[in-house]
Amino acid sequence: MDGDAPTRQDVIRVCRVLDGMGLVEGFGHVSARLPDGNVLITPARGLRLVAESELLIFNLRGELVAGAGTPAPLERWMHLAVYRARPDVNAICRTHSRYAAALGTADMPIQTAHGFGGMLGLRVSVHPERDLITDDAMGRAVAATLGEGAAVLLRGNGALVTGATLQQACVRAIYLEEAAFMQVAAGGLGGTIPFTPEELARRARWYEAETARAWEYYTSRFAP
After folding, report:
1. Can you tell me the mean pLDDT for 136-153?
2. What is the DSSP string of 149-197?
3. What is the mean pLDDT of residues 154-164?
4. Domain covering 2-222 assigned CATH 1.10.287.130 in the classification
C-alpha cells in the first residue's frame, strides 16, 4: 500500500484541480492504473470532498480489492473496460464540464481547432448511450467508441478523458473543455476551422512540455 502513496496523492490533486476548474461538481471520478494491474478509483462522492483514505481498489474484473465500506462509483465499469482495452492508458478523468456536455447533448463531436486542444487528437467522438454506464457490457461499448482516442463525450452525460499519466489526463480534461467552448463560441462566427493531420503533427512536439507546465500551474492554484 505504501508504494501506492504517490499515485494516491496525485489522484487527490487531480480531484482538486478538476473541482477548482469547474469541470466537476457533485459528480465525476478519477482513476489510475496501479503497478500490479489493479485500478485505484475515487468513491461515489463529490471530488472536492474525497480523502485518500476513501480511495478504492478494484481488479480489472470489477472485484473490490481494498476500500470496503466506501460507496463505489456506479460507472467504474467504463474505467475498467478502457484499462482492459487500452494498455497505454494509465489514468482516467470522468468530468461533467459544461461546454463538453453541451456538445454531447447535441451529438456533435469535437473537431480540434486550437493548439492545446490538439492534445486530444483530431476528433473527440460522442458515445450514444444516455444512461449511466453501470455494467461491463455498457463499459465495453464506451471503450469501443473511444477506440484509440484520447477522450470521448458521453451523450447527455459529460465526458471521459484518458492519459498515460494522471497529469496528462487532468490537463487533457481542462483542454477538452476549452476546445468545446471554442467550438460552441465559434459556431456563431461560421464555425471553427479544424486542424489538418499535418498541422496537428507539427503542433504535437510541444505537448509534453505544455502538459508539465499546465500541471505545475493548476496544482499550485488548487492543490498546493
Report:
1. 98
2. -SEEEETTS-EEEEESSHHHHHHHHHHHHHHHHHHHHHGGGT---PPPH
3. 97
4. no
